[in-house]
């Protein structure tokens, strides 16, 4: 006799494998097609994400490199090269923080704001419309809900791993 719980678990694992592979494919296609959408402005999807983060109302005074890295969920090392290129291109400025001189704050320049608001955003909105043309508002709401649940679980797993590593390091020192 087949154990229905085993079959259910196998089905869920198979579906999970398909889901995560599709997420991987979507991320790759986002980089490819999203970059094409804004390439005439000299932007990539990574630069699009940085300008989007800096354009938020709560970021008008800029963001520290660490806060920006945490918000975008990238390493400081990966962000550092990206910010350097964006600074070279005149999209962002980097300066020492007023509160902590060791911390650097990234702000969008006037040129970066022009590229973002006047040139890139209309193309980004068109990109969204093309990709989500056959999605209802309900579809988008549900997709966002489930992606946020996956993201929260990934963040929890990451925090648990970091906590365990810190515990291992503390035991090694003791």
Polypeptide structure, described:
The chain has a single domain (4-134), classed as Winged helix-like DNA-binding domain superfamily/Winged helix DNA-binding domain (Arc Repressor Mutant, subunit A, Orthogonal Bundle). The protein has 174 residues and is mainly alpha-helical. The protein has helices at residues 4-38, 45-55, 65-72, 76-88, 110-131, 137-173; strands at residues 63-64, 92-96, 104-108. A 3-stranded antiparallel sheet has the order 1-3-2. The model has no long low-confidence stretch (mean pLDDT 92). The termini are far apart.
Secondary structure layout:
Blueprint: H1 4-38, H2 45-55, E1 63-64, H3 65-72, H4 76-88, E2 92-96, E3 104-108, H5 110-131, H6 137-173
* Residues in helices, as a percent range: over 70%
Give me the strand/helix succession: HHEHHEEHH
Mean pLDDT: 92
The CATH topology is Arc Repressor Mutant, subunit A
* Spatial separation of the terminal alpha carbons: 52 Å
Largest sheet: 3 strands, antiparallel
| Number of helical regions | 6
| Count of the separate structural domains | 1
The low-confidence runs, each spanning 5 or more residues with pLDDT under 50, are: none
CATH architecture: Orthogonal Bundle
Radius of gyration: 20 Å
Strand order of the largest sheet: 1-3-2
Summarize the structure.
The protein is mainly alpha-helical and about 170 residues long. It is about 70% helix and about 5% strand. It has one domain: Orthogonal Bundle (Arc Repressor Mutant, subunit A), CATH 1.10.10.10.
């Amino acid at each position: 006799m087949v154990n229905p719980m085993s079959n259910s678990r196998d089905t869920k694992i198979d579906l999970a494998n398909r889901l995560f592979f599709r997420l991987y494919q979507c991320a790759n296609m986002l980089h490819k097609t999203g970059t094409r959408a804004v390439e005439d402005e000299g932007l990539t999807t990574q630069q699009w994400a940085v300008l989007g983060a800096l354009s938020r109302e709560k970021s008008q005074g800029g963001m520290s490199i660490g806060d920006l890295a945490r918000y975008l969920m990238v390493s400081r090392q990966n962000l550092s090269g990206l910010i350097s290129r964006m600074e070279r291109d005149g999209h962002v400025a980097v300066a020492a923080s007023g509160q902590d001189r060791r911390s650097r704050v990234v702000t969008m320049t006037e040129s970066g704001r022009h590229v973002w608001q006047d040139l890139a955003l209309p193309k980004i909105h068109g990109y969204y419309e093309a990709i989500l043309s056959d999605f209802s508002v309900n579809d988008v709401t549900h997709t966002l809900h489930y992606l946020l649940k996956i993201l929260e679980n990934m963040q929890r797993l990451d925090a648990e791993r970091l906590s365990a590593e810190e515990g291992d390091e503390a035991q090694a020192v003791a």
